[in-house]
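Appendix B. Worked example

We walk through a single record from start to finish. Start with the input: the chain for Pyridoxal phosphate phosphatase YigL, Pararobbsia alpina, length 271.
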Amino acid sequence: MYRLIATDLDGTLLNAHHQVDPFTIDILRQLEQQGIEIVIATGRHYTDVSGIRDTLGVRAHLITSNGARVHDPDDREVFSENVPPEFVRRLVTREIADDATVNLFGDQDWLINRDAPELLRYHQDSGFSYQVTDLTAHTGDDIAKVLFIGGVDTLARVEANLIREFGDSIYVTYSLADCLEVMSPTVSKGRALRVVLDRLGIEPTHTVAFGDNMNDIDMLETAGQPFMMGNANPLLMQRLPAVPRIGNNFDAGVALELARLFDLQGSQSVA
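Next comes the structure step. The output line below is what the pipeline stores for this chain.
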């Protein structure tokens, strides 16, 4: 029997407006009442995700910054891994970042190199916001993740710069088509999920996981029962062709699949 549910947020658990809908909230609360552990695993900042967890109303473990941070349901940090400071200082330079919008995720702060109010629509449930600052003046200390946002061509140039200069000494992945993320090479959602599983004494075979993009690969490979969203990145579909695909995030696909797996009836209709 499954004992733990791990799910990504954007493109997976959240709807088209980057929010959680009532049906999803109802299903997750029913699962918690049955003793099922819930893990939110995302590239988002911890402060942001803790606000989303409050909206869900469940006691979930949080895997944030693509696995660079893990917090328990009582907000105790149980794992952390930072990008080396000397790497951060190089990553924010124009030679690496090109024309991308650059973001630094620290323990509490979201720092950005230019104003980007369009990003705030992703954080409606939590109210989390950024601080515009000169990133080239940052010490590079205590940074969990460096995020580059830009068009396809811009991020292709950034990715080429990263490969040329850093090789395997960093972990680089896409969370969305316009979001290229950099973490320590020992960081991933799958590794962080194993930290949670070990703490709880749960085997991977008793785990269900949901994801939609390239940063979900090893989490899906870790879980005994992985599911891929119908709206998943085509590259993820090519990489994991055996993983079953379910409904779309904008149709509450995760909640519908969980209701089927655990024979639940939601009290709210899907929007």
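Two observations about the output. The chain has a mean pLDDT of 95. Residues 85-183 form a domain with the Hypothetical Protein, Haloacid Dehalogenase-like Hydrolase; Chain: A; domain 2 fold (CATH 3.30.1240.10).
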